[in-house]
Amino acid sequence: MLAATVTEPWTEIGGGSTTSPSVIQAYEEGAGESARRIAFSICEAAKTREVACSTLHVWGKHPAEGILDAARKNDCDLIVMASHGRRGLGRILLGSVAQEVLVRSPIPVLICR
């Protein structure tokens, strides 16, 4: 089993490049820590079920793209992912990573809510 997390690159809002390097560094450190926490909890759950687990943190990609690339490069035969289950206007405005993965993936996808 592979537990993959994806971190989008830092994006400036408003088109300017006025963000200090320390803010970007804090974002990257926070994203790395969050990815480590998520991967650790997934691997601990796998361990209790005697399932081998490895982790991968994909940096600098849109989440759906990173998930699909990781699955392809690691010869995964199933993608299992969570969804917030947003509907209606929230889904239209916010988009859905799960929906994008589901539509674009040549690999079967299991969505858990």
Q: How many domains make up the coordinates?
A: 2
Topology order in helix (H) and strand (E) letters:
EHEHEHHE
Radius of gyration: 16 Å
Whole-number average pLDDT?
A: 89
- Biggest β-sheet, characterized? 2 strands, parallel
Q: Helicity level, as a percent range?
A: 40-55%
Query: What oligomeric state do these chains adopt?
Result: single chain
What topology, given as strand order, has the largest sheet? 1-2
Distance between the termini: 20 Å
Low-confidence stretches: none
Question: With helices defined by DSSP (H or I, 4 residues minimum), what is the helix count?
Answer: 4
Which structural class fits the helix and strand makeup? alpha/beta
How many β strands by DSSP? 4
Strand content: 15-25%
Described by the principal axes of the CA atoms, the overall outline is globular
